[in-house]
Every structure is written in C-alpha cells, then in structure tokens.
UniProtKB/TrEMBL annotation:
It comes from the Bacteria. The keyword RNA-binding does not apply. This is Carbohydrate ABC transporter substrate-binding protein (CUT1 family). Residues 1-22 form the signal peptide. The keyword Signal applies.
Length: 452
C-alpha cells in the first residue's frame, strides 16, 4: 500500500550555529560527459561527485539517487549541458577536490563535506545559499527540520543535503553470535570487549573494517564510541572552542577504549589495506561476525548479500558505557556529503544549478531513497510500504529508538582536524601513537583552524 509518512527529523543540537564525514561508496574513477564537443547555444554546468558505475552496480542507493537526479535533470532541461566528473572516495575524491580548490578550479556543482565547505567559503569559492533558499521558500520548506545543520556556518548555509545519514552502524550476524554462546548483542562497553575476545577465540573477525581510504576508523568507528563517553554539550563546547578539548579525560578515555579493542583484535589484520566492498565480502562469506559502515550500507547489504545472511543480520550501534547510561539515547548522524555551488556563476548557470538542487530533492528522488533503504531529507515522503526491505525496517526501528542525533567531528570540524583524525587513528591502529598523543594531535589540529 501507499503510505505518506512524517520522516524522523531531529534538530542537531546547536548544529545550526557554528557547524564546520560518512562515507560513501565507490571503487573506480569514472568520467561522464554529455554532449561531447559542446553546443555554444547551451548553458554548460560541471559537477563532480562519487556516484561511480561500480557503486551503482553494488546497489549504493546514494549513487543510484545521484545518477537518477542527473538523468531527470538532463531530460527536463535539454538546453543545459551537464558535464560530470565521477571519482570514488577510494580513488581519491577528497584529494582531487582539495587540489582543484587549491588551483581555484572547482566545478560549478560541488559534492563536499561540511568540513571542506567552511574553508571554501572563506576563500570565496562557494556561495552562501541562504538567499537561494529564501528566494525559493516553497522548495526550502519541503526539507525536514535540521537538514541544513551540517552545512550551517553562523548565518550562512553552504550546502544542500543529498540524504540523511547515520555515520556508524554495526551490522552483525546473530547466528555467529549464537554459535559463540551469545544470544544478544552486548549491553555495555565491557560486555562488548568480552564479545570481541570470544569471537576472536572462535576464529571470527570481530568487526570487519575497511580503512584503506583512512576515513573508516575516524569517521565511522570512533564517533560512535566517542559519543558514548561524552555528552553532546561537551562536543558543542569543543566545536565552538568553549573550554572543552579532545584532551579532556572523557575524550582520552574513549580513545583509550578503542585502542584496547584494537589490541584485542577488533579489526581484521589488513584493516588499513581493504576497502568497504572487500570488507562486506568478508561478512557475506561468514568470516566476520560484524562489520561497520554508515547507514548507506543498508542498501549495499540488501543488494549484495545472500538471503541467509540477510535473515541473520541485525543492526545496532556501539553499546552504552556503564555509569554513563544518560548518553545511551545519542546516535551520531547528520547529512554528510552535500552539494555546494561555485561562487561567480553566470546568471544562466545559476538558474540551472538551482534547478539541479531542486531536482536532487524532488519527490521522486525522496521516494527512491526510502524504498532503496536510505533516509530521505523531506518532511514527508510518499512511498510504498510493501517495497521496504525487512533489513531497512530493522534499521528504521533502531534509528527511531534514539532520541538525539549528534554531529560527527570528522564531518563538522575543519579539514585540518579531518586530516589529523584520518592519519592519527590509522597510526594508532599500527601502534605509532598512544591515545594521549592522538588526543593532543586532534586538539592541535582543531585549534589551528581557529587561528586561521
């Protein structure tokens, strides 16, 4: 049956003021150009994103959504030549984007993390979209509350969301847990440590993770742990330089907990050389009891896994910490990668670019997201309930059991912080940094952005 529903929307506490990752799928570099050779009578727009053919083939709903939005736009606006450059995250999307920014050669439509948008705007490279939204109020009002939280810097909105995400989701095989004597998921952080030991002793990879791109540990694993040890108020104080620090005891305690899990064999030994596609295969093959990605991986699992794996898969996040049960209602999420517009577009390009943003959030696209296993951005979405996969229903049940969405540092803070976290957590995973040293490096990187 058709169902019209109010999509869960939680206003990110204080994220609408001062917000400065999650990952998306894709494994190859790919370029698509429409109308090669060009037509001088057409308006030309360039766009760079991560929706590779490989990601679409693997069922990545965000890539499928982008591909559909591009096709719809081209059909609706044949007088616009939209030139795509498509680069996967694993192939170095972020590096290429930073290189283009350094050369002041950003495309017209830019898929970027909020942590990048702040510096792009300060350098005069992307637009404040607040006037665009105010001039198109009917369209702006279709978005759920808080959907611009990750992209809001003071009074400026620098991006438009493609979808809503949860940065860290643990997918686990309940049959493997049962074979290892565990009838339920660990209830707290100490039980989780014991579960890691038990799974390891029984020959399983406890939590398969693909950190080849350096972002998985920093933006999917660690935020879920960090916000079980720390309140959202603490995070907001860190973000806004209001006295809190990554070197605070509660933060170091969280990083130390992750290091202890690493030492127990939490990850696959080749964690830093595998990508998400390879990691999911470990889970499908029954070698890993759990794997971690963001909410976007629900669609991958639905499209790739056998029915047996799907039937045995449950969805959760890291358990609460003993003595900090008041934090158990927090889940890390937001909007992640959004679309910004280059500063200095000609009038015809500006009109076309805004039309693309509208197409990206059109009702058909919102329905595609929900029915494909992802969180939409609209207040209301018309979808066929019978098309929802049981695994996505499990995810929605888990998601709706939390009462507060909190921001992800790797998404909201500066590029300096993001880079330090990517490198730092990888270094800690190979024993090159202690938790205290890593905490100091993270705070130093965060402080450096304040001085710029």
């Amino acid at each position: 049956m058709r169902k019209r529903t109010q999509i869960l929307s939680v206003v990110l506490a204080a994220a609408m003021v001062g917000g400065m990752l999650a990952g998306c799928s894709g494994t190859e570099k790919d370029a698509k150009e429409s109308g090669a050779g060009g037509d001088s009578s057409k308006t030309t727009l360039t766009i760079m994103h991560m929706g590779t053919d490989e990601a679409i083939k693997n069922g990545d709903i965000e890539s499928i959504m982008m591909d559909k939005a591009v096709d719809n736009f081209k059909s609706k606006y044949p007088d616009v030549e939209l030139v795509e450059e498509i680069v996967s995250q694993e192939a170095g999307y972020e590096t290429k984007l930073k290189t283009l920014a350094a050369a002041n050669e950003l495309p017209d439509l830019i898929m970027a993390l909020p942590s990048m948008m702040g510096s792009f705007y300060e350098n005069g490279q992307i637009q404040d979209l607040t006037p665009v939204l105010e001039a198109n109020q009917e369209w702006a009002d279709t978005f759920a509350d808080g959907m611009f939280g990750d992209y809001t810097f003071g009074d400026h909105i620098l991006g438009v969301p493609r979808c809503s995400i949860v940065n860290h989701v643990i997918y686990y095989n309940k049959d493997i847990f049962a074979k290892c004597g565990m009838d339920s998921f660990p209830a707290n952080e100490q039980e989780f440590k014991e579960a890691v030991k038990t799974l390891k002793e029984n020959g399983y990879i406890p939590l398969a993770t693909g950190n080849k791109g350096k972002y998985a540990i920093a933006s999917q694993v660690m935020p879920g742990i960090l916000m079980k040890f720390n309140s959202n108020e603490w995070y907001e104080d860190v973000k806004n330089y209001n006295g809190a620090s990554f070197e605070d005891e509660s933060s170091v305690e969280a990083i130390t907990y992750l290091k202890e899990l690493m030492d127990l064999g939490l990850f696959n030994e080749d964690v830093n050389s595998l990508d998400p596609v390879q990691v999911r295969q470990m889970y499908y093959d029954g070698k890993a009891a759990m794997y971690i990605e963001g909410s976007w991986s629900v669609s991958n699992l639905i499209n790739e896994a056998s029915q047996e794996i799907l039937d045995n898969t449950e969805i959760t996040v890291f358990p609460p910490v003993k003595g900090k049960e008041e934090l158990k209602g927090q889940i890390v999420g937001g909007q992640g990668w959004g679309i910004s517009l280059r500063e200095g577009l000609a009038d015809d390009q500006q009109e076309a670019a805004v039309n693309f943003l509208k197409e990206m959030s059109a009702p058909e696209i919102q329905t595609l997201l929900i029915e494909g296993g992802s969180l939409a951005t609209a207040k209301e979405v018309d979808y066929d309930e019978s098309k929802l996969d049981p695994l996505f229903v499990k995810f929605l049940d888990m998601y709706n059991s939390y009462d507060k969405i909190v921001g992800c540092p790797e998404v909201q803070l500066s590029t300096a912080y993001m880079d330090a976290s990517y490198v730092g957590y990888q270094e800690m995973s190979i024993g090159s940094l202690t938790p205290e040293e890593l905490a100091a490096k993270l705070q130093e990187a965060h402080e450096s952005a304040k001085k710029q």
